[in-house]
Each structure stands twice: as structure tokens, then as C-alpha cells.
Amino acid sequence: MNIALIVHDLHEHGGHSLYTKILAEGFSRDHEVTVFANRCERPRDAHWQTERVRAWRSSALATVQTFPLGLRSHADKLAAYQIQHAQGYCGGRPNVVTAHICAAAYLNSLRDINSRTRASLRLMAMAEERFFRRFDGEVIAISEKIARELRELYGFAGSITVIPHGVDAGRFNGDNRTRHRKDLRERLGIREHDVLALYAGDLTKAHSHLKKLAAAAPEVKFVIVTPSHRYQWRDANVQMLPPTSELQKYYAAADVFVFPSTYDAFGMVVLEAMAAGLPVITSNQAGAAELIEPSKDGYVLPLEQWVEGAADILKKQSSFGSIGEAAKNTVRRHTWPAVVSQVEKVYQRALNL
């Protein structure tokens, strides 16, 4: 097969971008692969090629509106590819699309946002809805949650294949605990017997619940790794840290991972924490929660009960070890090579092979 992967950006940060890079690397071993992107980080030894798509990047909305225009200039090149696989709404005429988010559902989940952001998301949701109502190719959803939202909010009537994300078990694993736990805790000023609860991600979707939990569990040390600035706060038991390329060390230092997301199509950090042997306390609004068997390999709580429930769980530290071990076993079934294999089957259906 010759495969065109279409994405706004390609790098190792962010679910849809990392997903695209993993597909490019996996398929380029046996197929011809080109990534069409506005910005692209391509390793020197990569076996896949790139084509730059012009777009105006002043905002997320500007990207959504102008990237399809830039893609039009590549129409003749794209027509030569048997598979044109877009990451969400990118324009063009793909025959395979992976839905990484439902903008309408995300918008519905938000409360504390300004009118400009709300208007921007509404326009993005309208563009997505128009696209999916007309699309007659193969759709991949990264969670059952997304598949349900495409049907309920966009009226998509075609077939959807649910393929959850994978995890890099070589990078995120329980062995890191012996390598990094002590040193990182010393750097953070956290004693070995202290309970360390970790959160990593955007605070827009979690700040109010995290703040309430930190107040409800003052004996627990909270480390929050986030790119967000607007929703940060100060408490004696809370440390706010910027994003890091060494997140695996923070999983190793932690005792539990907390993820009170008000909306996440998936939430790759959930799988990463589980691979590292951490019990995860997530809300039921994260797509990755579908992979957890509650009270066996993690905890899934309704959002409206999350603070009270998480505070109770933090008091039951004796179960953390067994839950973390079960989490590692669960995640072994969710590898990136398995994802590549499942996506290839979707390609074969798209070509009627």
C-alpha cells in the first residue's frame, strides 16, 4: 500500500500527533508512507517522507479553517495514494479518518470559558459535524465514548471501529520505580513515607476537582505537571510543575495517579500511569476509563462523586500495590504494535481487500 497520513502537526507530544508518528513508523517498514502536515518533526533515520501543508496557525480555529485550504494544493499528489488517513477533520477527501475528539462534546463539558473560546469551539464543532455527516469512508474512534458522541451529536450513521491508544511499555514501566523514585522525591522534598498523588495534563478539564481533593486530603502530597497557567493555585500540599520530557520519572515517584477530567476522548496519561504500576483514580468522562475494571485494576468514579470518592480511596493505601500490579497486567494488552495491526485491517477494508 501507499499511505498518506494527514495531520496538522507531527511531533511526540499530544495524542493525535504521537499516534500519527507511530503509524508512520510502523507502516513504513512495509509500505510507502508520506505525512502531510503543517509542522513535522521527522527523525533523520525515518523511512517515511513528508509534505508541508500551508496553514495559518494564529489559533486552533484558524488552523481548522485554513489547513483544508492548504491541503487543496496537494490534491493531485494525494490522489495517487491508496489510503488517505486524516486525523480528525483536516479537509481533503480521505477514505479513513481517526476521530481523536468530538469538539461538540468537549464544548458541552466546559463551564468556565470565555465567550471567544466558546465561539471558536462552536465553529470547530460545526465544521466537524458537516464533515462527518457527509463522510462515507472508514472511521476509527479512539474510544467507545467518541464513537457514541459522533453518532449522538453529529448524526454519523456509518460504521465505526474502536481502536484504543497503546502505550510504550519500554518507557513507562514499574522498573522505573527502583531507578528514579528516591532521587526525584528528594528533588521534590517529599519523604518516602508520604503519599504522593500525581496529575499530568491540562488543568482546564480538572482544576476544580483537584483543588477540592487537595483540600479534602491535606495529608497527601500532590504534584501537578501541567502546561496550564490560568488555573494554578497555591496550597501547602501542592506543587505545580511545568511539562517535562521525563514524565516516566514522576510516575515512578508517585503512589497514585489522579485524573478528574471533565472531558477526555481518551487520556493517554491514564495508560502510562497504569503501565508504571500506579493505581489510577479517574472520572468516568475519560475514554481510557473504559479499559479499567473498577476496584480491580483502577478506580472509575462519576464526576459528581469524584472528590469524595477519591478522598476515601486515598485513605486505603494498603490496596495500592495489588491494584497497581493488576493495572500493569491490563496495559500489556494495549501496545502500539497492536494498534498498528488493527489500523491496517481498517485500511484493507477501505480498499476492499
Can you give a write-up of this model?
- The protein is α/β, with parallel strands linked by helices.
- The chain folds into two domains: 2-166 and 335-350, Rossmann fold (3-Layer(aba) Sandwich), CATH 3.40.50.2000; 176-331, Glycogen Phosphorylase B (Rossmann fold).
- The protein is built from 13 helices and 15 strands.
- The protein has helices at 15-27, 60-72, 75-79, 103-109, 115-134, 144-154, 176-188, 207-216, 247-253, 268-275, 306-314, 320-331, 336-350, and strands at residues 2-6, 9-10, 32-37, 39-40, 49-52, 83-87, 96-99, 138-141, 160-162, 196-200, 221-225, 238-241, 256-259, 280-283, 299-301.
- The strands form three sheets. A seven-stranded parallel β-sheet has the order 5-3-1-6-7-8-9. A six-stranded parallel β-sheet has the order 12-11-10-13-14-15, with helices on both faces.
- Helix 8 links the parallel strand 10 (196-200) and strand 11.
- Helix 4 (103-109) runs antiparallel to helix 5 and helix 8 (207-216) crosses helix 11.
- The longest helix is centred in the middle third of the chain and has 20 residues, at 115-134.
- The mean pLDDT is 93.
